[in-house]
């Protein structure tokens, strides 16, 4: 085991990402879909492709052409009606902890959230997109395949505020429990 500093994207507010499609497709394997496991060779290849292109990240589809995730983050999209939706991960992808936390917080805030099969052409009506993971938090998607998503930064700020509210309450509960247990 070794210890390393957190990557730069894990500190502060991450810069918005311009995503293009990776040429690497995710294999369809329903029995492994959603599970975080160590066999992520497709993402390793896609990350190498990003490095060669000089890109911070790319979005990945599965072998049937459905949008799944980025090379290291889950995706959410927001349509013109304000509904948040995320790719269905029944065939490929990882159901990340931050994805689940954000979904839950959005629902608690009264937002409509759904999971869908998404083709790239289905995204022509989305007004914003964010990507998330446990290390880097929530990041705005400024462009998707060259198309500007002007509302993504405000959507990312909103999502971060929801998650920060959750984290703040958990910290306060923990501190409260620590004080109660210490006899102070």
Task: Report on this structure.
The strands form two sheets. Strands 1, 4, 5, 6, 7, 8 and 9 form a seven-stranded mixed β-sheet that branches. This protein has three helices and nine strands. It is of the alpha+beta class.
Given as residue ranges, the uncertain stretches (5+ residues, pLDDT < 50) are none
| Separate helix tally | 3
SSE-based structural type: alpha+beta
Shape: globular
How many E-type strands? 9
Estimated helix fraction: 25-40%
Strand content: 15-25%
Biggest beta sheet attributes: 7 strands, mixed
Feature tags:
alpha+beta; seven-stranded mixed β-sheet; single chain; 184 residues; 23% strand; two-stranded antiparallel ribbon
A few lines on this structure:
The chain has helices at about 40-55, 95-110, 150-180, and strands at about 15-20, 60, 65-70, 75-80, 85, 115, 125-135, 135-145, 145-150. It is an alpha+beta fold. Strand 2 (about 60) and strand 3 (about 65-70) form a beta hairpin.
